[in-house]
Specification:
This protein is of the alpha+beta class. 47% of the residues lie in helices and 13% in strands. Strands 11, 12, 13, 14, 15 and 16 form a 6-stranded mixed beta sheet that branches. Strand 2, helix 3 and strand 3 form a beta-alpha-beta unit. The relative contact order is 0.06.
Length: 672
């Protein structure tokens, strides 16, 4: 929209200026829609012809011409009357023209009256011909302004997401606003920090303005920056119904060019839309995150066999879901697509029929616990969903007692890893991925407890240190130190120090001996399994470390590793398991089995393995990486906990090779 500044700066032939210099910053942005020119003697009569309640068109600038180079007392009286009339008509301003002459100042009383009424006074020495086409130019500029406004609003509406709670909506609007205004755009929250920034340099450019709340021109390395800061939080902080009243969200914009009326209007529209998106996002989180946290807590309790506690936690109308003897577990892998959309769909479609929870350790997995009922509706709904969503996979467990949810999860997790090779991308679990569950439970637990007793029962240090070591061992023994450090959130040197400390306590070489690493991982896997029931050698309540009681006490002398393996081999289960586990690598033409055996026999050293096989180190790395992938090692796992029973580690690969081929030759570590 054209303004007084536009007429002064862009239409130089009009020789227009403010009579009072202080009016430029106050009234320069005043919009001008048309210019009405009259001789001063006729101007009051022109206004008097209009109805008293009829204003000019919004933005009318009134131009009066004097027939003398300076106003006479009669002119001054007429001007005073005209100023009052123009104020009532809401005019954009009054221009006093003295063609060919510069107007000398008006009387102080006249200037004071205009100031009091906030009517800008301007002067011009241009001839009347200079104003001949000004209205045509103003109409053209107004049309261009309207077109630009329409284009901006259309672009803004096109960024309106299908769901206001879409987590990408704020970023998309900020990106577009940055391009539309050629400006730095930052959306921040008092508690949540930066919500969106465009370009990436915006936080640094706008940091001072956001902290101080300053508007206007701010200093910057590249020159003066014009800033605007607008609250996008609906309502007022601290008022009833205002979510997170102390978490005000704000839109900050910085540009080298001043913001005209079009830009200001666009900023206001964008702020309203951003506010709606932010409010919808927070309301969506309030509706979904709390119930989701309850479901997650219940699922985790079931994974540990704490069925009673899970029923206590999972209160509400769906509590009857846990009033069941058996259940089955589904694991949905959303693949490259965002998990949130599928998770929300499952929560709605399976409400009060199944427990749906995001997997905390795997960002693409969704866990569903289905109580076994007469109806198969949960299975039917999930199969239809997998068929409709390309790229999704699903693994399904067999029915298990509710206390053995962890076993069902293991089956479903193993199955989803193989689901891509099936026609419908769905696979039923049942074959065990890990070795520990195949061993006689009481004997295995006694062996594992004896191996780990220096750390679990006879620990020489503080309780906090034991907790740290137990949290470190599964991850540190399963991955390289750099990867383990990333998963544990510590420095790799810290991982090394903890391994050295744990090895010293256990009298094991956990860094240099593959034998000791494998047996320690096996012991941790065994201790993560449910306790054996009093009357049967079957899983029951899980527990992370042994806490024997009179009913479940192990034999006084624990078996050796060789005796444990011999007892397990009596029914042929380990051999069948090993053949199934190694089938993918045995079918590979590169003799990956031999590479794995030599790699394990050389304590996982790539260099020594390459030397023994006469291959390059790069080839050995490729072979071991490909073999691990074929065998189901989960390199995306960031942390392995002591209660995890699903993660296939190097120990499972080594144990399968040992059972089938006798390589590597695993032996019981001697005790000092």
């Amino acid at each position: 929209m054209p303004t007084l500044d536009y007429l002064i700066n862009e239409r130089r032939q009009l020789r227009l200026r403010f009579l009072q210099p202080g009016h430029a910053p106050r009234h320069g942005a005043t919009r001008v829609s048309e210019v009405v020119a009259r001789p001063l003697t006729e101007a009051p009569h022109t206004l008097a012809d209009l109805s008293a309640d009829t204003p000019f068109e919004n933005g009318t600038l009134f131009l009066v011409t004097l027939d003398t180079p300076r106003p006479t007392p009669a002119h001054v009286r007429t001007l005073d009357h005209l100023i009052r009339l123009l104020d009532r008509r809401k005019a954009a301003g009054l221009v006093i023209g003295t063609p060919g002459h510069d107007l000398s100042t008006l009387p102080d009383a006249t200037l004071a009256a205009a100031n009091r009424l906030e009517l800008p006074l301007l002067a011009t020495s241009a001839e009347a011909t200079a104003w001949a086409h000004v209205n045509e130019d103003l109409r053209l500029r107004r049309a261009q302004f309207a077109e630009r406004q329409v284009a901006h609003l259309d672009g803004l509406l096109n960024r309106l997401p299908a769901r206001l709670a879409d987590p990408t909506a704020v970023r998309r609007i900020a990106d577009w606003l940055s391009v539309a205004l050629d400006a730095e755009v930052l959306v921040t929250s008092a508690r949540r920090g930066v919500l969106a920034a465009a370009p990436d340099s915006a936080p640094a450019a706008l940091a001072h303005a956001v902290i101080t709340g300053a508007h206007g021109a701010q200093g910057a390395l590249s020159g003066a920056m014009h800033t605007r800061i607008v609250s996008i939080s609906p309502g007022a902080p601290g008022t009833p119904g205002f979510p997170d009243g102390d978490d005000e969200a704000r839109l900050a914009i910085a540009s080298h060019a001043p913001f005209d009326s079009a830009a200001t209007a666009l900023i206001q529209h964008a702020a309203k839309l951003l506010g709606l998106c932010d409010q919808a996002r927070r309301e969506h989180q309030a509706r979904t995150q709390t119930p989701r946290a309850v479901r997650h807590a219940a699922f985790q309790l079931l994974m540990r066999g704490e069925t009673v506690l899970a029923q206590v936690v999972y209160t509400g109308a769906a509590q009857a879901l846990l009033d069941t003897d058996t259940a089955r577990v589904f694991v949905v892998d959303t693949g490259p697509q965002e998990r949130e959309a599928t998770l929300s769909w499952c929560e709605r479609a399976l409400a009060e029929q199944a427990i749906v929870s995001p997997c905390p350790g795997k960002p693409k997995h969704i866990l569903i616990l289905d109580p076994v009922r007469e109806s198969d509706r949960v299975e039917t709904v999930l199969k239809e969903m997998i068929a409709a969503r390309e790229g999704h996979l699903m693994g399904q467990s067999r029915p298990h007692p509710l206390a053995e949810t962890a076993v069902g999860y293991l089956e479903a997790l193993t199955a989803v890893g193989d689901a891509a090779g099936t026609p419908h991308r769905i696979r039923l679990g049942g074959s065990k991925a890990k070795f520990a569950p195949l061993l006689p439970r009481r004997a295995a637990r006694a062996w594992a407890a004896a191996l780990m007793s220096p750390l679990l029962d006879d620990f020489p240090g503080r309780g906090d240190e034991r907790k740290l070591l137990l949290e470190t061992l599964p991850t540190a023994l399963s991955f390289k130190h750099t990867e383990a450090a990333g998963g544990l959130g510590v420095h790799r040197n810290t991982v090394t120090q903890r391994l050295n400390r744990a090895g010293k306590i256990l009298s094991l070489d956990l860094r240099g001996s593959a034998n000791d690493r494998i047996l320690t991982l096996l012991a941790l896997d065994i201790l993560a399994l449910p306790h054996p029931e009093p009357d049967a050698d079957t899983p029951a309540l899980p527990h992370p470390h042994p806490d024997p009681d009179p009913d479940t006490a192990a034999p006084s002398r624990p078996p050796t590793f060789a005796a444990l393996m011999a007892a397990a081999a009596e029914d042929g289960g380990p051999t069948a398991w090993a053949e199934e586990r190694l089938r993918p690598v045995r079918a590979d033409q590169r003799d990956l089995v031999e590479t794995l055996c030599v790699w394990l026999e050389n304590n996982l050293s790539t260099r020594e393995t390459a030397r023994a096989l006469g291959l390059s180190e790069a080839t050995v790395r490729n072979h071991t990486r490909d073999a691990a992938g074929l065998l189901g090692m989960d390199f995306s796992t960031k942390m392995v906990g002591i209660t995890d029973t699903d993660v296939v580690t190097v120990a499972d690969i080594a144990l399968a090779l040992h059972v089938l081929l006798g390589r590597p030759a695993l032996v019981q570590p001697p005790r000092p």
